[in-house]
Amino acid sequence: MRSIRTKLVVLPILLSALTIVGCSSQNVDKDTTADGSITSSTTTEDGTKTGTVGAGGASGVNSKDSQGDRSNFNYLPGENNGNNTNDITLAGLNNPDNLLSQRIIYFDYDKAAIRPEYMVLINTHAKLLAKYPSLKMRLEGHADERGSRAYNVALSESRAQSVKNIMGVQGALSSQIKTIGYGEEIPIVRGQSQESWQKNRRVEIKYDDY
Amino acid sequence: MIKKFLSLFLSPSLSRLLLQPVALVVLLASSVPALAELELTISKTSDDGIPIYIANIPGGATGVIEGDLKRSGRFTIIERPKITNLSAFGGELNGGEYNDITDYIVRGKEHEGGLQVELISTSDNAKTTYTISKNTNPRRVFHKAADKIYEKITREKGAFDTRLAYVTVTNKTSDNRQFRLYVSDSDGHKPQVILTSKQPIMSPAWSPDGKKLAYVSFEDNSSAIYVQDIFTGEKFMLSSREGSNSAPAWSPDGTKVAMSLSFNGSPDIYIVDAKSGDFTRVTTSSAIDTEPSWSGTNSIVFTSDRGGSPQLYQIAATGGKAKRLTFDGKYNSAADIANKKLAFITGNRGAYNVAIKSLSGEGKDFLSNGTLDESPTLSPNGAMVAYTTMKNGENSLAVVSDNSKARQFLTSPVGDIREPAWSPYLNH
């Protein structure tokens, strides 16, 4: 059997720019506020929510315009920043300093919409697939334990599909990507807290052999 | 070798219907350690139910019959010391003498390996005698007796001699997690492992003849729906299409299985022929459509988030326009239907509870008060609902009467227990 490795490493540098924009529809509605898909947050006077997503390592920075804002990142993958650690190459997959080593995308409660801060990560993996057409990827969707189990399977499959759809736009072939929804069956962490639930609502990017 | 077998099996290039060698199932089952008996905790029983007194019956029947009648929420068991001078089975009995204490008296005796019980009404001294033949599982004899008593008094068929299927998982957040599919008596006794896997096992669903279970397995990084005979272990794959294969539900005649499939994009409801594997599509929305439950021979209730949040809808099995059934609250899902009753999960302010309503009527009654309750399943007579509830960080099973007056918990000593599925009436 080929080994399949899961990378749970989260790069604080890249996610440090992570901000939750108050007006972003997929982040905040009455449901998410009540059920609290955001682990800790403060609402500023202008309605901007800043805070920590329970994704581990992501610290809040106030900026309403973080979506696609390059200035929030110290570097972008594919750019030559002198040490080639950010090249979109197969070698990058095993380099902990490369964005490609990051393999988890987190979601809001009962939502399959991609948070803006994950677009760069998703696009980077998509570009890798486009560059290596024989490379295969599995997108494993998961949900937190709330709500019904079979609905959560569908929800987590939809999350994986959302990621796949964006990757398709970036040139990855549909045949390279397989999606699977595990629902709430394989939690990363135990516990009935907003933080635990946030960590469990995720899509894991998996490459065979990497 | 097992892995190779399974991967062979799950290969989508193979035909959908493929018989699984019995040997593999036996192999899997035999690797399981001693069967874990569930621990029963009675949370409450009805104190204003029909008073009934069960005289001591040699052989263990008394406790089982009392337990069954209590679980229904329709009876109050009169304590043994309240009546001391009762004559033995078959003896003279003047019901009126006990009319102040109880409405009914049950006496019994072992009979040719089975049981004879007599039910006496204290109001008119009417006596009915039942003979229950022996069974390889003696507790089933007692459950059958309880069914007779229940039916005579309530004029509603008893459902104690039935089974539960459920899933357990140990080490749920580690790579050593182990999923097991169990079948037990409806009171949690006599658990038998039907399937073991390191990958999730989900959504067990009984065939109407009570002999087969459909379920979802996740071997080899794919989901697939299998059908397995619970007695022979023989199984075959019913669906392993790309994406999700989820939430199987047998049609009332047992010829078809409704399920949620996502190979066309978003999860939709399909109906798959249980023999040929041929399928028809029922829903076509771009939203999530899942958790089908048959509400008649040609009608299905399912969960959809097409309106922005998960709600229950009803649609003809042939497709067409879906009618929304639930409007209260932001989360209504997981419908189960029996005897014209609909049990489902309803979410409100972060709590998820079991509710019940008449299939055609308005309103609903809450049956649970946990915060993370799920997977309601009705007994075939609709009188009881089993569901999953979180206790001390682990899922356990609860059984509640449809009037909420009786509730008990079934806890697994070895970890998490979830997804109960109540069998139909047993004809074997």
From TrEMBL, chain A:
<keyword id="KW-0732">Signal</keyword>
<dbReference type="InterPro" id="IPR036737">
    <property type="entry name" value="OmpA-like_sf"/>
</dbReference>
<feature type="compositionally biased region" description="Low complexity">
    <location>
        <begin position="36"/>
        <end position="52"/>
    </location>
</feature>
<dbReference type="GO" id="GO:0009279">
    <property type="term" value="C:cell outer membrane"/>
</dbReference>
<keyword id="KW-0564">Palmitate</keyword>
<comment type="function">
    <text>Part of the Tol-Pal system, which plays a role in outer membrane invagination during cell division and is important for maintaining outer membrane integrity.</text>
</comment>
<dbReference type="InterPro" id="IPR006664">
    <property type="entry name" value="OMP_bac"/>
</dbReference>
<feature type="region of interest" description="Disordered">
    <location>
        <begin position="31"/>
        <end position="80"/>
    </location>
</feature>
<keyword id="KW-0132">Cell division</keyword>
<dbReference type="GO" id="GO:0051301">
    <property type="term" value="P:cell division"/>
</dbReference>
<dbReference type="InterPro" id="IPR039001">
    <property type="entry name" value="Pal"/>
</dbReference>
<dbReference type="InterPro" id="IPR006665">
    <property type="entry name" value="OmpA-like"/>
</dbReference>
<protein>
    <recommendedName>
        <fullName>Peptidoglycan-associated lipoprotein</fullName>
    </recommendedName>
</protein>
<comment type="similarity">
    <text>Belongs to the Pal lipoprotein family.</text>
</comment>
<dbReference type="InterPro" id="IPR050330">
    <property type="entry name" value="Bact_OuterMem_StrucFunc"/>
</dbReference>
<dbReference type="Pfam" id="PF00691">
    <property type="entry name" value="OmpA"/>
</dbReference>
<keyword id="KW-0998">Cell outer membrane</keyword>
<keyword id="KW-0472">Membrane</keyword>
<feature type="domain" description="OmpA-like">
    <location>
        <begin position="94"/>
        <end position="210"/>
    </location>
</feature>
<keyword id="KW-0449">Lipoprotein</keyword>
<feature type="signal peptide">
    <location>
        <begin position="1"/>
        <end position="25"/>
    </location>
</feature>
<keyword id="KW-0131">Cell cycle</keyword>
Automatic annotation (TrEMBL), chain B:
<keyword id="KW-0132">Cell division</keyword>
<comment type="similarity">
    <text>Belongs to the TolB family.</text>
</comment>
<dbReference type="InterPro" id="IPR011042">
    <property type="entry name" value="6-blade_b-propeller_TolB-like"/>
</dbReference>
<dbReference type="InterPro" id="IPR011659">
    <property type="entry name" value="WD40"/>
</dbReference>
<comment type="function">
    <text>Part of the Tol-Pal system, which plays a role in outer membrane invagination during cell division and is important for maintaining outer membrane integrity.</text>
</comment>
<keyword id="KW-0574">Periplasm</keyword>
<dbReference type="GO" id="GO:0042597">
    <property type="term" value="C:periplasmic space"/>
</dbReference>
<dbReference type="Pfam" id="PF07676">
    <property type="entry name" value="PD40"/>
</dbReference>
<dbReference type="GO" id="GO:0051301">
    <property type="term" value="P:cell division"/>
</dbReference>
<comment type="subunit">
    <text>The Tol-Pal system is composed of five core proteins: the inner membrane proteins TolA, TolQ and TolR, the periplasmic protein TolB and the outer membrane protein Pal. They form a network linking the inner and outer membranes and the peptidoglycan layer.</text>
</comment>
<dbReference type="GO" id="GO:0017038">
    <property type="term" value="P:protein import"/>
</dbReference>
<keyword id="KW-0732">Signal</keyword>
<dbReference type="InterPro" id="IPR014167">
    <property type="entry name" value="Tol-Pal_TolB"/>
</dbReference>
<keyword id="KW-0131">Cell cycle</keyword>
<protein>
    <recommendedName>
        <fullName>Tol-Pal system protein TolB</fullName>
    </recommendedName>
</protein>
